[in-house]
Design brief:
Blueprint lengths: L8 H26 L5 E18 L2 E14 L6 E8 L13 E8 L5 E8 L2 H46 L4 H21 L3 H27 L8 H9 L6 H34 L4 H30 L1 H8 L5 H4 L3 H30 L4
Antiparallel strand pairs: 1-2, 1-4, 2-3, 4-5
Length: 370
């Protein structure tokens, strides 16, 4: 006679079946992930729009375009492919046209059917054209000095790409890395751009002093304001894709430091040149020379601070919409970390800029008669 299952054994059997099904799903999911078809990025241009229509959906209007696409780079180079591209014209007014150069993602589904998805426009030619105009104008207006400044710019990118970024990815202190890079970049780029002379030397020393003040203020106020540096999408993304435990607050400080170098270059060189010209035109003592040079320096400060604020404003326009399109009061909005971060960045850089003027003026006046 067969044994009958007791009532109490049913929950155990059900639990066992659930666990077995879960293990099977995990194993299948792992195998599924390993068998995912590889993706490839292709480049090419739209040679024809075969069909175009708008459709109403729950998400809004969708513009569907059937594109005939000539692949110019990738495994399918030289082939003409046809696929549908869909966009939301109300949210993203993108409409592909004949001649558009595009990046597309090419893959296959598990049945072997080819799939294509537009990733982005190809912008390299436009960027190269704009860069060429920049280089030609620099050389035409500044001549030899323009060439050396372009060399300095290239060295700056080289230091950032080959030293700063790799060290940051290795988990080194962003504050230390940015400071060391500044100590290398400031003299090299300044002397290449402005020549090996007394004026440039004064500018280098004044910039280093103002930069260390900026570093101190940035370190102090990011700590006092309890800024984490994690509010930007880029910071969260880099944390997810790297295995290193990056110091994101340090990255914020490093950005302030490197960004301040170019601004300080402008103000310190200009102020040192003012002192030099005044000294050549009039035989003045250090005190009177400082006083007259500061009259020009005040104009520099006023214009540069305004420029700095407008530059940060232009880069943060979507953020500034929080002040308008937000039901919360101003006192609450300004307290958000993403807003406080930009305020501290702007004010710290502005303070370093303001201090650079009297520092440069005094140093240039002190060595003017030597």
């Amino acid at each position: 006679m067969s044994r009958q299952l007791s009532v109490t054994s049913y929950p155990k059997i059900i639990l066992f079946l659930i666990l077995a099904a879960g293990c099977w799903l995990l194993a299948a999911g792992s195998s599924f992930a390993q068998d995912l078809p590889p993706e490839e990025t292709l480049e090419g241009k739209v040679i024809d729009i075969l069909q175009e229509k708008e459709m109403e959906t729950e998400q809004g209007k969708i513009l569907s375009q059937r594109l005939e696409f000539l692949v110019t780079r990738g495994s399918k180079k030289g082939e003409r492919i046809i696929f549908d591209a869909e966009t939301f014209p109300e949210k993203s007014p993108i409409k592909y046209k004949k001649g558009n150069r595009l990046l597309i993602t090419y893959t296959k589904d598990f049945e072997g059917k080819e799939m294509y998805l537009v990733t982005d426009f190809i912008r390299r030619r436009v960027l190269l054209l704009l860069f060429s105009i920049f280089v030609l104008l620099t050389l035409f207006v500044a001549r030899w000095q323009g060439l050396t400044s372009l060399i300095g710019m290239g060295l700056s990118f080289l230091v950032i790409l080959k030293f700063v970024l790799p060290q940051l990815l290795l988990g080194k202190s962003p504050l230390l890395v940015a400071t060391l890079a500044s100590l290398v970049l400031i003299p090299i780029t300044f002397y290449l751009s402005h020549g090996l002379n007394k004026k440039t030397t004064v500018s280098v020393v004044a910039t280093l002093i103002a930069l260390f003040v900026t570093i101190g203020l940035a370190t102090l106020f990011t700590a006092l304001a309890k800024l984490s540096g994690l509010v930007s999408e880029e910071a969260g993304f880099i944390q997810n894709i790297t295995e290193q435990n990056l110091n994101v607050r340090g990255l914020l400080l490093a950005g302030i430091i490197i960004g301040s170098i170019g601004i300080l270059d402008d103000i310190t060189i200009a102020q040192a040149a003012v002192v030099e010209k005044l000294s050549q035109a009039k035989k003045l003592g250090v005190k009177r020379l400082c006083r007259q040079a500061m009259e020009v320096g005040r104009d520099h400060v006023a214009s540069m601070v305004n420029t700095l604020v407008l530059v940060y404003t232009g880069a943060s326009l979507p953020l500034l919409l929080l002040f308008i399109n937000n039901p919360h009061p101003f006192a609450e909005v300004v307290n958000y970390e993403i807003v406080a971060e930009e305020i501290i960045r702007t004010l710290v850089s502005s303070i370093g800029l303001i201090l650079a003027v009297p520092i440069t003026t005094f140093l240039a006046a002190a060595v003017s008669d030597r």
